[in-house]
Amino acid sequence: MTSQYHFGTTADGREVTAYKITNSFGEYAVILNLGAAIQGIWVRDKNGEIGPVVLGADEGTDPSAYRRTGYVMGRCANRIAFGRFEIDGRTYQLKTPRPPHHLHGAEGNFSKQIFHGECTEDGVVLTLTDSGEDGYECEADVQITYTFGDDHALTLDYVITAKGDTVLSPTNHAYFNLEMPRDILDTKIMLDTDQYAPKSELGMPDGTISKTTGTPLDFTQEHTIREGLASDTIGFFTGEIPGYDDFYVVPGEGMRRVAVATAPTNGRRMTVFSDAEGLIFFTPTGDHQKVGEMELDGYTSFCIEMQFVPNAVNCPQYRSPVFRAGETLHTRTIYAFDTVS
Q1: I need a labelling partner for 56 at 20 to 30 A (CA). Which of 86, 87, 175, 226 fits?
Q2: Partners of 172 in the β-ladder
Q3: What is the CATH number of the domain that holds 301?
Q4: Rounded CA gap, 237 and 233, in Å?
Q5: Tally of domains within the chain
Q6: Over the stretch 83-131, which tens digit does the pLDDT of each residue have?
Q7: Residue 245 burial by Cβ neighbours in a 10 Å radius (0-12, 13-18, 19+)
Q8: How many angstroms separate the CA atoms of 80 and 204, rounded?
Q9: CA-to-CA distance for 136 and 92, rounded, in angstroms?
Q10: Is the pTM of this model over 0.90?
Q11: How far apart are alpha carbons 32 and 18 in whole angstroms?
Q12: Under 8 Å between Cβ of 254 and 299
């Protein structure tokens, strides 16, 4: 069952609508028309208690001011080096509000736009025509559909049609924590790949693929985030606070399992399936977040963001995110929840 209600108002006066999708077990997901965001997911733990597993803005607030809400990023998520790319010899220059590189679609990205929403029996269909500002130059028709049912799974379907030659690589930037108000350090992670795309000195993939074996990036065998961050391997986690922000290339094509996250205390487990090329595994650091009445500090959440390789438009070694006029990107990601003892 899907219902809708007024969620809040942005600082510039735009009304934000929430769509609450509830299954027969009383679990539910809340989706916003602002940025097609996952505002929250509430699912059972091993004791049958329903609780939140996603960080998100509080109802009645300005959700655009809360940076840890699960917006859809696009038209191209993550980074494009210097905001430049070529298609058929023509150079496109995108805006770089965080210079020197283009990030997440810049100022006009999906996360800042109001979608038109239509409720369905078990979900919501969100649509808009993206104008292509910030240098993309052409429009794109965007449809994002969420469903949530008795399979305890939130399914996210993208259908994006290019009206000119462009780059399409959206992702959802949901921040997960399966055992609030604890931090995520003891969450167990397994990734169905031993391949990652190393970063160059520009801070983004450089066209190569390497093995995770022997590095803190190796999650082929399930272990905790704490254990991964404890590694002193030279060359990784440079900086004051260690954390993950890395792209993994997932072998195979079509829908397949790509990741599993398990909370040891309450037994919640999230299994991610997708047909995308790979994922960003991200752990924001030095955080303080409030979720309802809960206060979280430190490593508050993790992200598993399905997408093309960042900067793939400039790296022919990777699958190309270029779509020609009239071509359509179809991609699906499923976040499936269950419990373990």
Answers
A1: 226
A2: 72
A3: 2.70.98.10
A4: 8
A5: 1
A6: 999 999 999 999 998 899 999 988 889 999 999 999 999 999 999 999 9
A7: middle
A8: 8
A9: 7
A10: yes
A11: 5
A12: no
